[in-house]
Design brief:
The chain is of the alpha/beta class. It has ten helices and eight strands. The radius of gyration is 18 Å and the shape is globular.
Length: about 325
């Protein structure tokens, strides 16, 4: 590239974040420490509790939907504290109740442990807030978990969903899009890191398609979806591909593609105009969902290859096909 596609402010932030972030070979402990470096003190105003046996942090809102949020970090890094600011801002701007999920992380707990935890929190939130619009949300690998749980709810007659908010989500293990090559290096989140995260998340004998919502054979019947993307992101193209598939299947799908920024740019709230603009637009979209009563999505006994693959995998682990 002869011209930097990042804005000057985004480039400065990207380089600062990259300078203190280890390569994948450094291992999970080093990467986790880097993700938590320079965290500010967590302010009061949220409640740490349990959704059954899953730790969650609840930001109570006065109105609006209930948002079950899964944090990013390649299923390996990050936690409630690293995403506290984003969840707090989301709750404040929408009036929504945000339930942030502290799911089990890889490689200590591999697929589908994280997804199971997010789904447990979803069921808990639905029971705790009956009648409220229910939304699944997440960023990066958390977007993967949100998308996967939306599919599970559809296929197993789970809680009715008013929408799903997917922020630069991980959707396809193949990393085959042009953006995975164009932005492989130099834009904070690298393609090498993403491949390493997939290796940590999946057991050696796991079919990676089972953990790739972007490869599901049928995306019809999913709730309205907003996908927030960064233009300079290895994952950009898989997000665009998923949005196209949703739209052609009759699912209301909207894309916010933010130019001049990189994967993780919402971490720059207060520093990047694009981050503030993205949060404002996503908050407006969430608020609009509260004006539409959710409908219960029916169970889908003919789940196709996606449902069959996941049912077979869960049966091999637990001896049951119950979600």
């Amino acid at each position: 590239m002869t011209t930097d596609p990042l804005t000057p402010a985004a480039r400065a932030l990207c380089d600062a974040m990259s300078a203190g972030f280890p390569r994948p070979g450094a291992g999970a402990a080093a990467l986790r420490a880097a993700a938590r470096a320079h965290l500010a003190e967590i302010p009061p105003g949220a409640t740490d509790t349990y959704a059954k046996d899953v730790p969650v942090r609840v930001y109570e809102g006065e109105a609006g939907p209930v948002v079950v949020f899964a944090h990013g970090g390649g299923w390996v890094l990050c936690d409630l504290d690293t995403h506290d600011r984003l969840c707090r801002a989301l709750a404040a701007r929408t009036g929504a109740t945000v339930v942030s999920v502290d799911y089990r992380r890889a490689p200590e707990h591999r697929f589908p442990a994280a997804e199971d935890d997010v789904y447990t929190a979803l069921e808990w939130a639905a029971a705790r807030h009956p009648g409220h619009p229910l939304v699944l949300a997440g960023d990066s690998s958390g977007g993967n978990l949100a998308a996967a749980c939306a599919l599970r709810a559809r296929d197993h007659g789970g809680p009715a969903l008013a929408g799903q908010l997917l922020i630069y989500p991980v959707l396809d293990h193949r990393l085959a899009g042009e953006s995975a090559d164009t932005y492989a290096e130099g834009f904070f989140h690298t393609t090498a890191h993403m491949r390493w995260y997939w290796q940590q998340y999946l057991a050696p004998d796991t079919d990676p398609v089972a953990a790739s919502p972007g490869l599901v054979d049928d995306v019809s019947g999913l709730p309205p979806t907003l996908i927030v993307l960064a233009d300079c992101d290895p994952l950009r193209d898989e997000g665009l591909a998923y949005a196209r598939r949703l739209s052609t299947s009759g699912v209301p799908a909207h894309v916010q593609l933010h130019t001049g920024v990189f994967h993780g740019f919402l971490g720059g709230l207060g520093l990047l105009p694009e981050a503030d603009g993205a949060l404002h637009a996503a908050s407006a979209w969430l608020a609009s969902l509260a004006r539409n009563a959710p409908r219960r999505l029916p169970s889908r006994p003919g789940r196709g290859q996606w449902g069959k693959r996941r049912a077979q995998f869960r049966t091999s682990l637990y001896g049951t096909d119950e979600g």
